[in-house]
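Quick one from the shared queue. A colleague (R.T.) flagged Methionine aminotransferase as missing a structural entry in our internal table.

Convert sequence to structure tokens.
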Amino acid sequence: MRIDSKLPNVGTNIFTTMGRLANEHNAVNLSQGFPNFGADPKLLQLAADALKGGYNQYAPMQGSVSLRIKISEKIETLYEKTYHPESEITITSGATQAIFTAISTFIRPGDEVIVLKPAYDCYEPAIEVFGGKTIPIQLEGLNYTLNWNTFKSAISSKTKMVIINTPHNPAGTIWNEIDMLQLQEILKDTNIILLSDEVYEHIVFDGKQHESVAKYPELASRSIICSSFGKTFHVTGWKIGYCVAPKALMHEFQKVHQFNVFCVNHPAQEALAKYLETPEHYLTLGQFYQEKRDYFLNAILGSRFKMIPSSGTYFQLLEYSDITNETDTEFAERLIKEYKLASIPVSVFNLDNLDNKQLRFCFAKTNTVLDQAAEILNRI
């Protein structure tokens, strides 16, 4: 049987590769982006209550009504933007499914999609599967800033979508108000759809604020915003996220969504709806992870690595040019095999595998694990 692959150049992703090596060499694993500590017992109890309470059949296709109402209230409180629970919110099987469904809904063969690099690895394969063409733009410098002239010049009559990510994985940067206003001005008077990946919206540090697309009316009117309960509440294995969009965009999104997953885990949705009744559960998340970031960075102050403190997410980039001239993929592999510490090389997310000699470390770990990692980093 001859198979004509729709993704001929896609192999095993970097997370699987580094995770496998970490397991083989019994390494301290700061590579994969999930916490190694448990969820709030209150949330787990709410999930158990929902299971016992009979929420074990299909949820509505759009998602639990009670959860959609709570999401609408949260966004209105935080960003002063109202999304109607009935027609503008959909619960998804994680943010990755929301992103994939958004791309499948709107991208046709020949459409161009602007992707800012480094980019999370789920964007481009989805574009390729549906015949679209990725137009990559490399963010510049070790601070990963966008050259707006380059961005404007990349827009053409074929541009159907732009994908942004803030707070940014893997760079740990965030967009500010000036960035959003600049983007809003450039996209004005176009038919370009904006897909905004905001899964780390509640993990922002140093007194800064998350600039959601929802805060900017002209951007919101053309945008699909994707978020994640898994990232927010330390339950990545639940695979529950959501997206919001204006009615016209969401109507088309739901046409595809209903034939993709139809609906999402019902008892978990009911648990999350009740958990969201206490805003502190997500409003304190930034402080929680900033303490972990600071703990990790303070623990490696004596190392030879260079660092710009992460502004958001639970990832920290460390630059190692004072240590070795190896490529980041080579050094990451040697770190596992010789030092028993796993990270992610950043070049795999960059345009043409641009190598800035940086590795990404996840600090969503217990202090014991962070201490183990710091001890290794300090002796390299």
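The two ends are 50 Å apart (CA to CA).
The chain has two domains: 14-32+284-378, 57-278.
Added to the table.
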